[in-house]
C-alpha cells in the first residue's frame, strides 16, 4: 500500500477498528516504512498523553446554555434570497457579455447623438453589403 492510504488507516488501526486484512497490511507497512512508523508512534504517544487527562464533569446548567446557543442564532438570522448561482464560474462570461450589451444599449438609447450613431451603423452595414456583392 502507498503511504497516503496507510496514513488514512493509522487512526482506525490505533483504535483497533480495522478488519484483519487491513490490520495486517498496515502492520507490515509500518515495519518497512520509517516515515509512517514515526507518524504512528507520534499518534500513539498523543493518544496516551490525552488518556492521562482527567475527564471533567460538566454542570447541567452549562450544558443547557451551550445547547441553547444555536437555537438563539437561528431566531435572529435574517433570511435573504440566495444569489449563489450568480457567482458560478460557468455563468461569469455570460454575465459579462450581458453587462456589455446592456451598457451599449443604454448608450444608444440615452446618448445625446442617437441619429449620428444610426447614420454610422447604416453606413457600416452598406459598406459591408457592397464588399459582399463584389
TrEMBL record:
<protein>
    <recommendedName>
        <fullName>Putative zinc-finger domain-containing protein</fullName>
    </recommendedName>
</protein>
<feature type="transmembrane region" description="Helical">
    <location>
        <begin position="90"/>
        <end position="110"/>
    </location>
</feature>
<keyword id="KW-0812">Transmembrane</keyword>
<feature type="domain" description="Putative zinc-finger">
    <location>
        <begin position="3"/>
        <end position="36"/>
    </location>
</feature>
<dbReference type="Pfam" id="PF13490">
    <property type="entry name" value="zf-HC2"/>
</dbReference>
<dbReference type="InterPro" id="IPR027383">
    <property type="entry name" value="Znf_put"/>
</dbReference>
<keyword id="KW-0472">Membrane</keyword>
<keyword id="KW-1133">Transmembrane helix</keyword>
<dbReference type="InterPro" id="IPR041916">
    <property type="entry name" value="Anti_sigma_zinc_sf"/>
</dbReference>
